[in-house]
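Structure tokens please, single chain.
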Amino acid sequence: MAIIYKFDDTYFLLFNKISVMKKFYLGAFFYFLSLSVAQAQQPFTKGNLVVYKIGKGTSTNDTLTNAGTPVNIDEYTITGNFVRSVPMPVATAGNNKRLIGSGTANSEGQLSLSSDKKFLLLAGYDTIPDPARANIINAPSAIVNRSIAVIGADGSVDVTTALADAYSANNIRGVASTNGTDIWLAGTGTTGTNGVRYTTKGAASSSFVSSTVAPTVTNIRDVNIFNNQLYITTGSGAFKAISTVGTGTPADTGQIVTVLNGMPNTTANGPDPYAFDIKPGTGDVAYVADARSKSNGGGVQKWVLSAGTWSLAYTLDSNLTTGLRNLVVDWSGNTPVIYATTGESYMKNMPGNKIVSVADADSVSAFTVLATADVNYMFRGIEFAPEVSVTATTYTFTGNGNWNEASNWSNNTIPPSPLPANSAIVIDHAAGGQCVLNVPQTLSQGSTITVNAGKNMVVQGAITIQ
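Here you go.
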């Protein structure tokens, strides 16, 4: 049993004599009050950027090749300040598989945020980083499964999905989801493993979604969901544009792929679209990352819908030296802000490509460099961090006695276990009384417990962290 008591406005734990602040935030409170510690994942910060980064180090022996290479998800502020790096697993652990990428396949590494904004998704290969494997993308998917990571807002990494029938002998490029469970896939591969595909989290197989009736579309660049509609970009002929796949978010096969009316942009060299973003709600503005050289039209295309037809307004390329493959758009203000990763080719023992941003005020709006990848690393997909969508609630102990008695709590409401993120417990018991935590209580990241001045809390049950 641990007893918290007050002396000169400082609270002490009897069993270890460690003083703590009157407001016990999750990490410190758990450390002081629990004898069995469960390590928590660090949550992402809402509004930050997350970027797919590939590489294995910065020495001259850590150069990128087409062999399998470790992948990290780096978190940055929108001003380009590095926050932390989340490594994808390179060893199996229980049901969690591995996820690595090709060091030189620039079409890989697309990132997406689930429609409910709770999960970040990416794809790769379930195998070890093996420099002796000449080309990871050539591996048959039945031998090297194509794996999918579903990353929660709390920083948890789920790689329980590994597919034996997706994009064999070629590369899986991206995934999209409505809710972190239903998953649509993009990539290219041998017949029967290609096309737009569907699976669910934890599955070992997938199914073909797009139509098998000519003209078939198999070389899928990116897949995403906007305004509850499934979209793709491809590298296939007349489909080198944004296209819908069926209506809504279909999981059944036979869905017709339809290029948005007015696309593609039929310039002399033809478009080279990868990642894209469509305005929420109205759906009448779209930005597309075009990987062509700047001189041939590369950059960020802005498309506008009017009277049922899409038209190219202009291409943003000021201050760019290359085209782009990856982008995400902040639509929250009057002026959309685009964040992207640049398309420079990898150069051995040199810094990698860049994270850039631009506020689209007009056609000459200029990009600003936010960050540069370290030597022998490259950035690929970019997205906003997943968010915890939990309504904050405060639970106040106002009685005297046991924690698990409803009459001791305001509104007769005992705090749930686990206590949701960003929620609070306040100990403000009756005069001369005390609060006795006589049952186990689990806390989520971001929740707090406050013991008001002059109040006492006795801890008999275990406090753990989710």
